[in-house]
Write a structure and sequence with these properties.
The structure is a homodimer of 225-residue chains. Chain A is of the alpha/beta class. The first copy, chain A, has nine helices and seven strands; from the N terminus they run H-H-E-H-E-H-E-H-E-E-H-H-E-H-E-H. Chain A has a single domain, classed as 3-Layer(aba) Sandwich (Rossmann fold). In chain A, 48% of the residues are buried.
Chain lengths: 225, 225
């Protein structure tokens, strides 16, 4: 019995540091979201797109994780927002400690939103809370219909599922309805938006979700559920 | 000085078990290859395609790793080959111990080839040797041109790079030559084949590589380099 209580009370070191990050975000009223997907599902392009649409309305910072190269940070910086690249040097996910260290490089007082682009990996990043308020999982059309059931943790821990690169669906056997239904079998409250940064389909819905979350957070003490 | 010698001599537990698996394959003259890629890069489809082309010439067994579901094993079994599904229950890669346990379910004496389809993950599986003779990395066209430089371990540890779903390249900014060149910057001896199981482009070259490796292994005591 004692050990059960103990387990309830003791957070992992990463979870402890994630809570510290969260406190930093809360204090500055910065809404933080964590983007998780396979390599090449379109996280960086989505950030570029989002920044372009919202730069005049919201002050956005971006923290990008990759095993190697600063390419993504360079791409995003060209859109005129504050960005830092974390090179994990082989590690398969970001952790709360590293995120906390990199947050010091931002002027958080001036930000409304912090987007964290995790390492491209649909497995390991799902186990590491970074202190984010919302987690967005991306599955791209070319990856196929079976991904939610094969990667249930990515779905289970997400607050929003984006079906990206939907412009490629006609050239594949991707069926958004099938994917949506299997995702809802894992988490029946999960909102799902299909979009394409190339064709623009679905972008209005994504931007609306994003802006609502950011503004609600800024205008209240807690993130709306 | 003593500790350096010790480090040289002591293999990790996984490496030890990988060598045991390798000995099992060598004894039965079964050529083993390990397929590594992001989720949805087309590993299962490639196996289906390969089995269909070579079933009359080579006896092939398949070991499939996934976090969840037996879908892939069912798909492959429909092509008339021996297949077993390893459900990792959350683990992000296959390890040599589990592979060794599952090998007992195959009649290895009757096989020429064992294909291991790893968990869809371009990071963690690259660190775990399973006893395979060759490792094949797949990068699909929709994943984009930057993948080799961002996931250098996947390239560095591969014996062959396949650029898959090349039929989708015209609808993306994928440039096979750019990807090939950046892969060669990491490993300049790496053979690269671009292919599409849908259009059939490049399949002859893949099948030729596969058949040559399998036959050379069967006809000799060592895999040709």
């Amino acid at each position: 019995m004692g050990s059960i209580i103990l387990k309830d009370r003791v957070l992992s070191k990463n979870d402890e540091l994630a809570l510290e990050n969260r406190a930093v975000f809360d204090k500055r009223k910065v809404w933080c979201l964590n983007l998780i997907s396979s390599p090449g599902a379109g996280k960086t392009t989505l950030i570029e797109c989002t920044v372009d649409r919202l730069r005049e309305k919201l002050s956005i910072g971006v923290l990008v994780g990759d095993l190697d190269t600063e390419n993504d940070a360079r791409r995003i910086a060209a859109h005129g927002v504050a960005v830092r690249q974390i090179i994990t040097g082989g590690s398969c996910h970001l952790n709360a400690k590293t995120v906390g260290e990199f947050l010091k490089h931002f002027d958080l007082e001036s930000l409304d939103v912090m987007i964290i682009e995790n390492v491209g990996n649909l497995v390991c990043p799902t186990s590491y809370h970074l202190g984010e308020h919302d987690r967005v999982c991306l599955i791209s059309a070319p990856e196929g219909n079976d991904k939610p059931l094969k990667y249930p943790c990515a779905i289970h821990t997400a607050d929003l599922l984006l079906l990206t690169k939907i412009d490629l669906a006609p050239y594949t056997d991707f069926n958004p309805e099938t994917v949506r239904n299997s995702a809802l079998r894992i988490k029946n409250s999960l909102p799902v938006i299909q979009l394409s940064c190339k064709s623009g389909e679905g972008l209005d819905r994504w931007i609306e979700w994003f802006e609502n979350r950011a503004r609600s957070f800024r205008d209240s003490k807690e993130v709306p559920s």
